[in-house]
Amino acid sequence: MELNIENLHKKYGDKAILDIPLLTVEEGKITGITGPNGSGKSTLLNTISGIDRDFHGKVSYNGEPLNKDVARNMTYVFQKPYLFRRKVYDNIAYPLKLRKIHKDKIKELVDEVIKRLEIADLIDKRGHQLSGGESQKVALARALVFRPKLLLLDEPTSNIDPESIKVLEREIVRFNEETKGTVLIVTHNLDQAQRICNDIIYLNFGRVSD
Ligand SMILES: Nc1ncnc2c1ncn2[C@@H]1O[C@H](COP(=O)(O)OP(=O)(O)O)[C@@H](O)[C@H]1O
Ligand SMILES: [Mg+2]
Prior knowledge:
By secondary structure, the protein is of the alpha/beta class. The chain has one domain (3-209): P-loop containing nucleotide triphosphate hydrolases (Rossmann fold). 37% of the residues lie in helices and 26% in strands. The protein has 7 helices and 9 strands, in the order E-E-E-H-E-H-E-H-H-H-E-H-E-H-E-E. The strands form 2 sheets. Strands 5-6-7-3-8-9 form a 6-stranded mixed β-sheet, with helices on both faces. Helix 6 (162-179) links the parallel strand 6 and strand 7 (182-186). Helix 3 (88-98) crosses helix 4 (103-117) and helix 3 packs parallel to helix 5. The two termini are 24 Å apart. The protein binds adenosine-5'-diphosphate (ADP) and magnesium ion. Adenosine-5'-diphosphate binds next to helix 1.
């Protein structure tokens, strides 16, 4: 899915948080968003995902406004993910159930993503029993499992140990290569952005800089 932003203005009170005249996120690529704390990275993902509608300007998705079809094909993994108090397996299966996938197929897809993300040791735990880093892994699995056309990730490895970071980066890249899904990933780790991203957007005080 291609993303186009035109004249995006977002304020909190009197304070301008985002001011982006024009920005295109190309289809099928991994685009990084980086910049200092408070530069508006999470706010930008909030506006793109539709959870924050209180802004001026236009965001379009393959030329369309945010509609049901767009929403169905997009997902947003928060930095502090919200998981259900159910088993990890059920958390990951949830987007597939929502899309009425047959239960045999659900099992196949969930088992595969669990294997790929190397989280088999977590499947019998419940959502609220996980550490911050474990929750991030499960939330990423829940996002990848239904093969979204637009994947929004907010610092998905911020609580993750170095070995697991390698696994997550590998799987984000593999997802992108296999499905051609567009990935927009916020990271303040420039090395990470350089490792996995095709393009990098620098945000500073809510503006895109070169
Ligand atoms: N709900 C809110 N109310 C008021 N100000 C907010 C709110 N959320 C974020 N901000 C402010 O907006 C700016 C950008 O925040 P954010 O997008 O979270 O930055 P980043 O993700 O780049 O660290 C910061 O100055 C932050 O304090
Ligand atoms: Mg943030």
